[in-house]
Amino acid sequence: MGESILKLKNVNKIFETDAGEVQVLKNINMTIDKGELIGVFGKSGSGKSTLMNMITGIDRPTDGEVWINSEPIHKYGESKMAVWRGSNVGIVFQFFQLLPMLTVLENIILPMDFCNKYSKKDRRERALLMLKKLEVEEQAHKYPTALSGGQQQRVAIARALANEPSIIVADEPTGNLDSKTSKVIFNVFKQQAKEGKTVIIVTHDNSLKDEFTKNYVISDGQIIN
Q: CB-based contacts of 29: which residues, under 8 Å, 6+ apart?
């Protein structure tokens, strides 16, 4: 703890709509350290998803700065951002977003192919290692549709870890799982934080608040805690 990995400085986000400008984020300031397990809470429409898009580089602030590992990602163009994101940020989506035409193993190899990390042989070995770590190695050659929701979520996490990112961002990662499976999945994220990854989880589950090293509550585009 104590080594800052992520800083948002006076971040604002305004969207142009037919009805005029809508400000979704208002003067957001955050500092997150390496190895922290962060919870982001807020109602639907509060700005949580837009905030996550700032952190992952999926979107850019209207004004303000986003620094990750001392890099000003708010200044990056699309091509540079895509390569940077693939190597530095692991994203776990609420609905998994595994590619159905690829096997589980191929889904995990894909981000390594995209970023041209590791040799082809090492990519396969690393993908299998990730699956073993998440205890779904026996699913390697199946297609995602053959897996349960909990298994698909583990595969999605394995894919997010494939390029050894320093930051993992998960959007409602347990929202579609039963309570037992949710606990198992959450423990996976806790273990990643213990191993030095910075894990940021968007969730509606207030029962998890005591599990995080730091919580942010967003309301009407502002951090209120």
A: 8, 9, 10, 11, 223
Assign residue 169 the CATH number of its domain: 3.40.50.300
The residue range of the domain holding 122 is: 34-61+77-223
- Measured between alpha carbons, how far is residue 126 from residues 54, 56, 76, 88, 108 in Å? 29, 23, 29, 17, 9
Q: How far apart are CA 135 and CA 28, in angstroms?
A: 38
Query: For residue 137, what are its two tokens?
Result: 């190695």
* 180-207 tens-digit pLDDT: 888 888 988 999 999 999 999 998 888 8
CA-based nearest residue to 11, from 47, 72, 84, 62: 62
**pTM for the full predicted model:** 0.89
C-alpha angle with apex 135: 175 to 214, nearest 5 degrees?
A: 45
